């Protein structure tokens, strides 16, 4: 409930938080504009926001 998917382009999804801040999420590259995903290897809240409706297994989106 912290954010929602606002839209999608060819390369990334756009999520928006309750405060109105927008983040770009690229599932193919395991990247988010917040950089938490790249730094920790764990999906950030923005990526999870995209993954939940898609019903993808989260383990596939975590680093080794």
From TrEMBL:
UniProt xrefs under InterPro entries: Znf_PMZ, Znf_SWIM
Recorded superkingdom: Eukaryota
Pfam families for the chain: SWIM
Keywords associated with the record: Metal-binding, Zinc, Zinc-finger
Keyword Zinc-finger: yes
Residue ranges of every copy of the SWIM-type domain listed in the record: 23-55
Presence of keyword tRNA processing: no
GO molecular function, one term: zinc ion binding
Full protein name: SWIM-type domain-containing protein
Source species of the chain: Kingdonia uniflora
């Amino acid at each position: 409930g912290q954010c929602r998917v606002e839209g999608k382009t060819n390369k990334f999804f756009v999520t928006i938080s309750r405060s109105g801040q927008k983040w770009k999420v690229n599932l193919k590259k395991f990247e988010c504009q917040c950089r938490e995903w790249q730094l920790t290897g764990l999906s950030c809240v923005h990526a999870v926001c995209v993954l939940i409706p898609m019903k993808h297994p989260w383990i596939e989106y975590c680093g080794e």
